[in-house]
Structures
1.
Amino acid sequence: MIDSHRREINYLRVSITDRCNLRCEYCMPKEGVSVLGHEDILRYEEILRVVKASMKIGIVKVRVTGGEPLIRRGVVEFIRELCSLGLKDAGLTTNGILLEDFAGPLFNAGLRRINISLDSLDPEKYGKITRGGDISRVIRGIRTAHDAGFFPIKINFVVLKGFNEDEILPFVRLTLDKPFQVRFIELMPVGRNARLNEARYLSNDSVMDTISREYTMHPLDARGAADGPAYLFKIDGAAGEIGFIHSGSGHICERCNRLRLTADGHLRACLLREGETDIKSALRAGCSDAELEKMIRTAIDRKPAGRPCIEKKPSIKKCGKEMSAIGG
Ligand code: SAM
Ligand code: SF4
């Protein structure tokens, strides 16, 4: 499926819950968000129906996210069904808090690709940014996932000025002897924390400068078609890779290959644009497969060329939905 700006759309991110067991400062307000009721959340069978319809029009990659996906009951069985659909790539993004218990069952359910969010290696700093998270659980989760055979294991590191810039090199070093892909993600001004996030924004150009002063990075040009907006590099002799996602500085839109399904059953063509297509109501009103496919095509056609919220700063407040509700 090629959108109206000639991008191939082959990646669907699915948020299966807006709830979370952490409260990361840049993602959620301290008091949390008002969570959706049981009936407002898409049922697993409804999500699978949307995935199947999306596959018919070219989606080959699906990533399950949230909120925190591992807190939704039945997630392992859902992943098993998702993995049996014949996607080229099925993955999950988690904060890793529950991963020690879930890694084995998820691997047995057929999942191989996992992204784990970790913004500090320092227990105190981790506790601060997540408002109470216990890093030892995440570290055990990563180890268990590695031992279970997950590959690739990607570690998402959101760069925050004045908070974790000093950990850029320690995170790069994680790739030297382990086959992890550490991804440096630029902070985005989303939700109620938009203004605060603007103040903490640090560009990936500056991250790359920091790394280049210490290491030689080689670009990896053998990119998979569904690799999306990450720019990948490797340090000489390293087992793993480093990736840069220029989500805050606007270089990703021309490579954007994704569509999002929110936990409340809306298709969202752009993370930073409010327009959504209400798939849940259509599903519950008994729409046919052909109608469903048409709605997905229309949502893809609505993808904007660029970033409406970041380019026009005064409209930043319009990016009102929280990241935890959209799924990252
Ligand atoms: N709870 C899971 C987790 O943290 O991995 C999955 C959902 S979380 C919304 C998905 C990703 O979005 C995480 O890697 C998180 O760090 C990232 N994220 C959240 N808010 C962000 C923001 N304002 N800018 C950039 N990335 C953000
Ligand atoms: Fe929860 Fe993930 Fe948002 Fe942190 S980034 S509050 S773990 S949804």
2.
Amino acid sequence: MEDLLKNLVKNNQAKSKLGEVANYIPELDKAKKDALGICIYDINGNEYCAGDCEEKFTIQSISKIITLMLAILDNGEEYVFSKVGMEPTGDPFNSIKKLETSSRKRPYNPMINAGAIAVSSMIKGKDAREKFQRLLDFVRKISEDDTLDVNYKIYCGESETGNRNRAMGYFLKSQNIIEGNVEDALDVYFKQCSIEATAKNLARIGLFLARGGKTSTGEQVINPRIATIVKTLMVTCGMYDSSGEFAVRVGIPSKSGVGGGIVSVVPGKMGIGVFGPSLDKRGNSVAGVAVLEELSKELSLTIF
Ligand code: DON
């Protein structure tokens, strides 16, 4: 397996030239463009890694699946999906247009920014600090890594440049989709995007979902139903407006972030973490997607 992963990294590293590192937030552009790493944890606890698996990056939109799990734990499935839909949009992740024009009058799904900000507003806690601390404790638990933390330089950049997200937050408040304090919701959202992790951490989170919400100690942290909801939304909306093509080419529930990470879940089999900061036009890692496509073919991992 390790040889296979090494070859995948070698074969696909040059594809990073086809994309660009995200630069719309200060500091994100510091990433090394041709970095590429993949890590797999299988259900029997074996670990396989190749390339830049220990390199830290911010999880960005991958945090949306983590917040969704905690929001459902805190509020129940019915409440969460009364405020946010389950349908793909086919629009970019930061699109604002369907928010007002659609007859649904709520964000289409929890993986676009509008839906994710609404979900962040549902995390319980007396103030933004407590809400985020609960989220950080939750991600540390499911990744089985107590050292995970926020990159404060990136967080400041998110907050300073996040006016489009702010606009969506205030619109959601006007529609009563956000019931609490908007600034708290935005602060949790900016911080969750700025959590730093490695491909290894992502593989652990993938394995947690592959096991239906259990850690390696056997603790059932979330009900398997929540894990199923999250994996399903990863298939339909996890790779933004490339989700359909990704499902055909790779066929593994996955979630990407503009920091270059992708977390993938092969249910009942393995968790996969990939890092490659050079992104395509939709915000997905160019070389990372290529590695996953080859891996899926080699090991027949498509779930379809
Ligand atoms: O601009 C934002 O909202 C980001 N910090 C998160 C975006 C993200 O990762 C979208 N991804 N592919």
